Amino acid sequence: MRIMRTVVLTLPAFLLAVALPILAQPKWDVTKTVHLGGDGGWDYVTVDRDTHRVFVTRSTHTMVIDGTTGKLLGDIPGQTRSHGTAIVPALNRGFITDGGGSGAILIFDLKTYAVLGKLATMPDSDGIIYDRATDLVLAVSGDGGKLMTFKPDIDPVNGKIDPPIDLGGSPEFLAADRDGKAYINLEDKDLVAVVDLKTRKVIARWPVAPGGHPVGMALDGRNHLLFIGCRNPQKMIVMSTEDGKIVADLPIGAGVDATKIDGAQAFASCGDGTLTVVGQKDGKYEVEQVVKTPNGARTMGVDSSTHTIYLATAELEPLAPGQRRPQPKPDTFMIVEVGQGPQ
């Protein structure tokens, strides 16, 4: 009787101990949709994790949204074909790439959103980031095949960018580590170019095969890995930053434009309305979940402090013959939020 009583008393505790890890496994899902409207397409989404602001380029203007409330905080004008935003909170400055015409980077005040000036750059100025390790703003010119750099405290009216670095291909997006190296997708060459920012030279070019046409890129600096979104074939490539070795290749949806990291998971947002979640199990990377999102939600930003993903899209017209992408319906632009919940 004493033995039986011990078993009865401990069995609920045992079941609870087994169940808790299962219940604690995070699942991602769409939690909110914020309809903002306004003219223009959309490109990169940048999140300020300290203030929870979301910056979204909209062709001729850039919207600033409160990620907590969904309220529009500001709308920065003066662009021709805006692509991406980088922020440097320590200097109270933001930077927007404008790929229209001869190319420019617009500098704005992070508090008032007032435009401080414009730097002359190169045509098709596209992906842009701030590298804290070298204290450089890094931006790429797709048509020019160059990496452009400058200090964030540059004179916003009369300042000039550094001599551009030739990449040997058409760049899309980029990342930088803490050791003075930049990693840049060369979409037309199916390569990642590695640039030593101290010597300002390309020191390696690594193939992304079995992926192709690399566009999205995110860096896991702690584990020395790049997560690269490829369009043809449709893959997320996990690549070592130590030697360019492919650690894993995983299936994703069509029309990827962004890859991001939050904690131990990586994400690929695709225009076909899928968000692929990648994680590691028993030392191997695998697809853990595919979240259904609205069509066209191909770019995203992640607030790592709240574990919230923000995707940009709009209601879309049917794809017309000869069109590569469907056109958005007027005034239907929206931000789709994806968050975590219990399994």
UniProtKB/TrEMBL annotation:
<protein>
    <recommendedName>
        <fullName>YVTN beta-propeller repeat-containing protein</fullName>
    </recommendedName>
</protein>
<feature type="signal peptide">
    <location>
        <begin position="1"/>
        <end position="24"/>
    </location>
</feature>
<dbReference type="InterPro" id="IPR011048">
    <property type="entry name" value="Haem_d1_sf"/>
</dbReference>
<keyword id="KW-0732">Signal</keyword>
<dbReference type="InterPro" id="IPR015943">
    <property type="entry name" value="WD40/YVTN_repeat-like_dom_sf"/>
</dbReference>
<dbReference type="InterPro" id="IPR051200">
    <property type="entry name" value="Host-pathogen_enzymatic-act"/>
</dbReference>
